[in-house]
Amino acid sequence: MRSKFQMLPPEPQRASTVAEQVFDMLHEKILTLELPPGTKLSEVDVSTLVGVSRQPVREAFSRLSKLGFLLIRPQRATIVRPISEKEVLQAMYIRSALEIEVVRTAALGIQPQDLKELSILLEKQEQAAKAGERIVFHTLDDLFHKHISEAAGVGFVWAIIKENKAHMDRVRYLTLSFGTETALNEHKEIYEAIAAKDQAKAVEGMRKHLSRIKYDLPRIRDEHREYFAEE
After folding, report:
1. Is 186 exposed, middle or buried (0-12, 13-18, 19+ CB in 10 A)?
2. pTM (2 decimals)?
3. Does the first or last residue of the chain, that is N or C, have fewer Cβ atoms within 10 Å of its Cβ?
4. Average pLDDT of 27-41?
């Protein structure tokens, strides 16, 4: 039977690169709920299953813990944290506050090449949506938002957003089972507003897009109560 931790054997390289591979693998499996809340993990088991030393696994665990995905308990098993509705809404508030200002700036003076890049990302998202490739769609979703930050000349803001949005990610992934078309259409609205240099419309589009999780959350919680913390 295939291990759920399998990945390509890393080529000989510095430990931090291996840690990045382990982080990416675990992050994806937690995000897509292949490793659902409550799953027990250990450095020894993961390092053995993926064929690396414990150090890169320890680094990956530490990063995932800081993002809010893992609960590291000394002398006890590390577990995948349940989804906290309170923390999801807090993350939404922080992200909205930042990205609304980002899109306002982008709408002021985005360059033609950046618009072209955003258009290409939208085309790829549409292809992923039609193919039912949720992981690909989610990745492209993040790239769309990241590129808006870069186009606005404030790429550093995306790093802050990324560190604070982790609690939203699993819920956002679950909403793609019914909300892919809506997410894509909202991206198109944001793009069109930026292209038209319409700050007010761009801000309103981003606010609507990022606040949608607030309205989808009750449905996700009802359908997947086992994933949520009792609060």
Report:
1. middle
2. 0.86
3. N
4. 93
